[in-house]
User: Which sequence fits this backbone?
């Protein structure tokens, strides 16, 4: 689970030099845990034709997302398209996303569009970090969607977290039973989730003053 600290530092220094306080999705992916890339293929492109070519090689359906340091809430900006099923639709979707982003923020630096493999099934989760004035760096875990946004169903541990800490976090949310599989759904891979939690906690511990991952 070791990170390439030199590569991560290079990314963070670039973000800091540009006066930003958050990372774009590609920057965040490059800084993420080494095991992350095996779950979903993704990359970003600067033109509709390049995006279509990448999506074709990747396989359909795909998801398209705007890449811009100034646009953190991509859905609100009309910067996300889900379930795109052909190269023509990717090209059209690219142009649509860029147009929506320009309308949302005319001053935004639009770097391109991220193309990523669309996964079906599974359970959405959120893994992140906060800095507490009393305790310092904390790693956070919760189930995604409304369980985080509305119910605030999330748990924290001191960073860096151990494997046992991470596994206890999976049982520490109110909706823990969902992770075990309900109504015929498959249970989550607890070891894989714990590894990601540990990796994120190590990452934020290694870089005490870091921008937000978005």
Assistant:
């Amino acid at each position: 689970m070791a990170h390439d600290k030199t590569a991560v530092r290079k990314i963070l220094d670039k973000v800091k030099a540009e006066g930003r306080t958050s990372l774009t999705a590609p920057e965040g992916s490059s800084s993420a845990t080494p095991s992350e890339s095996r779950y979903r293929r993704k990359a970003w492109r600067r033109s509709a034709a390049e995006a279509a070519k990448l999506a074709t090689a990747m396989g359909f359906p795909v998801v398209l997302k705007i890449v811009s340091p100034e646009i953190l809430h991509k859905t609100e900006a009309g910067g996300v398209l889900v379930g795109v099923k052909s190269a023509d639709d990717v090209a059209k979707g690219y142009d649509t996303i860029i147009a929506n982003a320009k309308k949302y923020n005319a001053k935004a630096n639009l770097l391109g569009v991220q193309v990523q493999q669309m996964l079906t099934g599974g359970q959405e989760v959120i893994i992140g970090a906060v800095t507490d004035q009393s305790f310092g760096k904390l790693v956070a875990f919760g189930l995604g969607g409304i369980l985080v946004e509305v119910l605030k169903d999330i748990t924290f541990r001191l960073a860096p977290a151990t494997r046992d800490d991470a596994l206890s976090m999976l049982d520490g949310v109110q909706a823990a039973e969902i992770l075990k599989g309900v109504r015929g759904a498959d249970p989550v891979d607890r070891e894989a989730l714990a590894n990601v939690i540990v990796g994120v906690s190590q990452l934020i511990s290694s870089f005490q003053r870091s921008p937000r991952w978005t």
User: Anything to note?
Assistant: The chain is about 40% helix and 20% strand. Residues 87-104 form the longest helix (18 residues). Confidence is low (pLDDT under 50) at residues 34-39. The radius of gyration is 18 Å.
